[in-house]
Amino acid sequence: GTRLAPKEKLDIPVLFMPDTMKMYEALVVIHVIRENGENWPCEDSAELNKDLKSVTVAENGGIQGILWIYPVHGIPEAPQQKLFPAVVRCRARQRVERRVEVLLTGVVPGATAMPAARHSAIVNTNKPANIQEEVQVTDGFSTTVEFLYELQYQSNEAKSQLGAFVGMHLIQRERDTESGIVTLIFNIVFAPNKPMRNEATLVVQCTTGGVWKFPMLFIATEPEVDDVINIEAVGLNKESIVSFKLTSQTR
């Protein structure tokens, strides 16, 4: 019953307020008819595809109404909390491995699942990881629930500085059947080539819907001294020369 003048704009608000961490789907459908109730004339009405969902054709061959259909996907995201970032620290030109554990709530909707991710947390165990360990699924965890994860950076510059030196792999996951909390354990490999300090965000998305974000901080400190060059004087006002080789890591 909304009347629109020619070239007039219409705002259609869409409200999304999820109660569980799963994806919701809906359609926003706008149906337009002429105010006087008459049909739009159509010369080739007989050739119109009857399966076309964007128009409704009247019996006399005219176009009775026009449809705009917009699919909407509602993906709930866990509220941002003041979590302490998981810190991965390494000296430049060295390599370190760390296990990072994250807790997800409300992953699987059901009686035992929490309605919202109010207690998502991140734990940095700071223990060397065994990269040979396989991903394990404990009893009670649905094998159909999969997770997508990635590291997001604050800028393209940070991505170029950090992206090539960080590797991440999901090595273990388990779910507590009573609380519905899912624990994911990642193996983080950090091998910087120069001192840096960059922040990143670990983004975890469940295939059934729901997004969790956890802050991370990567710190590369000054590298070890390569060598000490001793130059011994041969006398006053005389030059002493020591030669040494430098090898470039790139072209």
TrEMBL record:
Pfam families: Ig_CFAP47
CFAP47-like immunoglobulin-like domain sequence ranges: 78-221
GO cellular component, one term: cilium
UniProt-listed InterPro entries: Ig_CFAP47
GO biological process: sperm axoneme assembly
PANTHER family linked: CILIA- AND FLAGELLA-ASSOCIATED PROTEIN 47 (PTHR45912)
Name this protein carries in UniProt: CFAP47-like immunoglobulin-like domain-containing protein
Organism the protein comes from: Charadrius vociferus (Killdeer)
Lineage, opening ranks: Eukaryota, Metazoa, Chordata, Craniata, Vertebrata
